[in-house]
Write a structure and sequence with these properties.
It contains four helices and no strands. The chain has helices at 7-18, 26-33, 37-51, 67-71.
Length: 72
């Protein structure tokens, strides 16, 4: 599995995508930075969720609640 991109890099790419000139697509920004457009889209969604104060992906569905917490 490839190593994840550093957080600072992802933040820079998201910032560039948000501040792109009219007519420049997300695909062009992704290509300029050497990332897949789907990765950029995911990073933008994650940044927007963080700005809204929503929990990260680790707190989402699919995470099992420990049995001790259910008994409380």
């Amino acid at each position: 599995m490839p190593k994840p991109y550093p957080k600072e890099f992802r933040e820079d790419v998201v910032r560039a995508a948000r501040n792109r000139e009219p007519g420049v697509t997300l695909e062009q920004v992704a290509t300029d930075f050497g990332v897949h457009p789907a990765s950029l889209t995911k990073w933008i969604r994650r940044a927007e969720a963080e700005e809204r104060g929503e929990p990260g992906p680790a707190a989402g569905p699919g995470i099992m609640t420990p049995p001790a917490a259910l008994a409380a």
